[in-house]
Amino acid sequence: MGEFTPCPDEAVNAAKAICGPITLSEITDRRGSAVWKATGTVATLAIKAGYGEGEEITAREGAVLDQLPGYTVTVGRYASGVWYVTPWLTGPSTWDLFKPIRHGDGDHARALAGSADLCRAVAELHAAGWVHGDLQPAHGIHTDHDAKLLDLSWAWSPMFPPSPLFQGGITHLVAPELAAAVESGERPVRTTIESDVYALAGTLWTCITGRWPLDYDAAGIGPDVGPSARRAAIAAGAIPLHSAEPWPTAQAPLRAVLRARAQDRPRAAELAVALEEL
Ligand SMILES: Nc1ncnc2c1ncn2[C@@H]1O[C@H](COP(=O)(O)OP(=O)(O)OP(=O)(O)O)[C@@H](O)[C@H]1O
Ligand SMILES: [Mg+2]
Predict the structure, then answer these.
(1) Which CATH superfamily does the domain covering 9-87 fall into?
(2) Domain Protein kinase: where (predicted)?
């Protein structure tokens, strides 16, 4: 691990202009993008800097946040790349929210309410004409009121076309038809509301079971298999769902989504209702 990249002065100044003196804490720095939590006296902000391979991806995310209803962002360039400042979303990620469930002593009603909140956040994004394209257990934040989505680098809408840089997202949560599109060399790859719903169900499944949905071992796919071969197997439907069933009632509707053809998957709003009614 190298040094955490320095926070751009321009971003620090922008944050100070919004919320007064700030204290910075380092959150993540990988693959050319770094995030800090900037705690001020009147507000707390997230600062993200993109440099090197992350520069254009972060620039794109800043532009998405600028257009999305319900998000606020200030974007700028600095010598090494791009930065943005956006409100810090306070609350656990979906992964963290489910930690007690994974340990066997969780509040099931709370987890189901959180699941429905995450589905609604995705449903709202879809209703606004956007596809997220990179839903994962760490990309939902559960605030006191609702769930909000993070990491919108790959989001697209008819007014904001998909990026040619997108390689298909996290392999473990890629819908079979999306895996096929990526492997066919189609660029830009078009994520869809159906592939988002697959990733949404896969995210919730992962948060419940603590493991990715597909049973690679059962299909003879070892840990050293690269993303391309993994995607090819997913596209071919060659990998069964893992049989671990710590919470069968919640997993049943998720299993149905993960097994359905794209055109047969429910909408995110329908999945919210199905989970809430359990
Ligand atoms: N606005 C925010 N509010 C709260 N936390 C945030 C915010 N933005 C980012 N984070 C935190 O920083 C982490 C990294 O953010 P993000 O996923 O956008 O960056 P990334 O560089 O794309 O990371 P990765 O490549 O791992 O997906 C998030 O998982 C979350 O913990
Ligand atoms: Mg991320």
Answers:
(1) Phosphorylase Kinase; domain 1 (3.30.200.20)
(2) 1-278
Spatial CA neighbour of 157 closest among 134, 182, 187, 190: 190
157 beta partners: 160
**Residue 78 pLDDT more than 60?**
yes
Instruction: Please give the CATH topology (third level) of the domain spanning 94-276.
Output: Transferase(Phosphotransferase); domain 1 (1.10.510)
The percent of residues above 90 in pLDDT, for the chain, comes to 99
Between the CA of 263 and the centroid of ligand 1 the distance, in Å, is: 31
Give the model confidence (pLDDT) of 183-214 as tens digits.
Answer: 999 999 999 999 999 999 999 999 999 999 99
- The Cα 87–Cα 85 span in angstroms is 7
Cα-to-centroid distance, 63 and ligand 1 (Å): 16
Q: Whose CA is nearest to atom 21 of ligand 1?
A: 33
| In the chain, beta strands by DSSP E | 23-30, 33-39, 44-51, 74-78, 81-87, 140-142, 147-149
* Contacts of 113 by beta carbon, 8 Å cutoff, 6+ apart: 276
Whole-angstrom CA distances from 70 to 9, 67, 219 are 27, 9, 42
Ligand 1 pocket test: pick from 31, 89, 151, 153 the residue with the most ligand atoms within 8 Å of its Cβ: 151
